[in-house]
Design brief:
Elements: E1 6-11, H1 19-29, E2 33-38, H2 48-55, H3 69-76, E3 79-85, H4 87-95, H5 101-108, E4 113-117, H6 121-124, H7 127-138, E5 142-143, E6 147-150, E7 156-160, H8 164-175, E8 184-189, E9 194-195, E10 201-202, H9 209-220, E11 224-229, E12 241-244, H10 248-259, E13 264-267, E14 274-276, E15 294-296, H11 300-307, E16 312-319, H12 323-333, E17 338-343, E18 355-356, E19 358-362, E20 367-369, E21 373-374, H13 375-390
Parallel strand pairs: 1-2, 1-3, 3-4, 4-5, 8-11, 8-13, 11-12, 13-16, 16-17
Antiparallel strand pairs: 6-7, 9-10, 14-15, 17-19, 18-21, 19-20
Helix pairs in contact: 1-2, 1-8, 3-5, 4-7, 8-9, 9-13, 10-11
């Protein structure tokens, strides 16, 4: 992803310049080396000293201090991000104008360039700005579209800087190796909720974090991704088709509709094993409940095996006890290509954690034990092993 990558962060003269602090901090927290370049107008909104403190690096503001910095920075960096990007910088970039350090960097930089616009809605919808955005996109420049909301002037409209997390996600996408280009990846995530009545339901402690990490990792590596998720508090990943479901039967339907077009299917959702025989349309009084009749939910993987052609199937198992034996049994009975198992009693491997400790087992018998890693790192290891199967 971006650990060890060198990112130029261009700050221009927008009221959203203060969000550049969050961007610089977020990029650094993910392991990137951040160099901030500010335009003259950007310095009217925020001091270069602030960015020097946050980035722990020299901030560049002058085309001639030092001389040739527009060349040396270009040679040393992996990506250039302009956020916020004003109408002025967009129009200059599209016209090939280089009249300060940032615009000359945009001319000399040969790596991926990302713009995150922020401006008044009238400016963003101006035909000249739209035309210049189209021009830059045709040249391979990537845009993180602004969002609709209350603007600095007090008006409502499209023009607010995109969420910082989305912008960082796009940077991760543009610097990642694209070894899944041409693949369609289907990922399931989160729990399901099986209603007892309008208030109560049967569910589990899955947060959806592992599935979301898998979806984002596949997208970064160039795949076309569909994410089917049960109820979760997580924001839909940027640039990924996300389908929300609630019950196990809804997840079954959504998976079956998208399965035939998929080449890799990663079933990371914690689908409820049981559902009430009949859900009440009205809240059941506590004193009226003596027993609860349950039935098993449908086996999605079993259905997929009857329909599969050349798809690679990856399953997950959250277990206790002899987790390896249980995982190997599931690998065989579900006819999976890969199974990922974790012991939910281990610290750092349970539900709702940002980390995981897993063992990945291939149908060939190959077994790989991962130490405690971020779920995004685990996701990349899984796709590395998927690609080995395809080799």
């Amino acid at each position: 992803m971006i650990k060890g990558k060198r990112i130029i962060l261009g700050i221009t003269g927008s009221i959203a310049a203060y969000k550049g602090i969050e961007l610089a901090r977020g990029l650094k927290q993910d392991g990137a080396y951040v160099t901030v370049v500010m335009t003259e107008n950007a310095q009217r909104f925020i001091s270069p000293l602030t960015f020097e403190v946050v980035s722990e690096n020299k901030v560049f503001t002058d085309l001639f201090d030092p001389p040739l910095s527009h060349i040396t920075l270009s040679e040393q960096s992996d990506a250039l991000l302009v956020a916020p990007a004003t109408a002025d910088i967009i129009n200059k970039a599209a016209s090939g104008i280089g009249d300060d350090l940032l615009t000359t960097l945009l001319l000399s930089f040969n790596g991926p360039i990302v713009f995150a616009p922020a401006m008044n809605w009238r400016m963003y919808e101006n035909p000249v700005v739209k035309k210049n955005i189209d021009t830059l996109q045709s040249l391979g420049r990537v845009f993180v579209e602004p969002v609709t909301g209350r603007l600095a002037c007090g008006e409502e409209g499209v023009g607010r800087l995109a969420p910082v997390g989305d912008i960082i996600e796009v940077i991760k996408q543009v610097v990642s190796i694209k070894d899944l280009v041409g693949k369609k990846v289907l990922v399931t995530a989160g729990p399901t909720r099986e209603p007892i009545d309008p208030v109560r339901f049967i569910s589990n402690r899955s947060s959806g974090k592992m599935g979301f990490a898998l979806a984002k990792a596949a997208r970064r590596r160039g795949a076309e991704v569909t994410l089917i998720t049960g109820p979760t508090y997580l924001e839909s990943p940027y640039g990924i088709k996300t389908i929300g479901v609630e019950r196990a039967d809804e997840m079954m339907d959504a998976v079956l509709k998208n399965f035939n077009d998929s080449s890799i299917v990663v079933m990371a959702a914690a689908v409820s094993d049981f559902t009430p025989e009949k859900a009440s349309k009205e809240k059941i009084k506590k004193e009226d409940i003596s027993t609860l009749s349950l039935r098993k939910t449908g086996d999605i993987l079993k259905r997929l095996n009857k329909l599969r052609k050349n798809q690679i199937l990856v399953g997950f198992a959250a277990e206790t006890g002899d987790v390896i034996k249980k995982a190997k049994d599931k690998l065989r009975t579900k006819n999976l290509d890969i199974i990922v198992v974790n012991d939910i009693t281990e610290k750092g491997a349970g539900f709702d954690a940002d980390t995981n400790i897993v063992t990945i087992i291939e149908k060939t018998g190959k077994l790989y034990k991962c130490p405690i890693l971020s779920k995004e790192a685990v996701a990349d290891i899984i796709y590395d092993m998927v690609l080995e199967l395809n080799a």
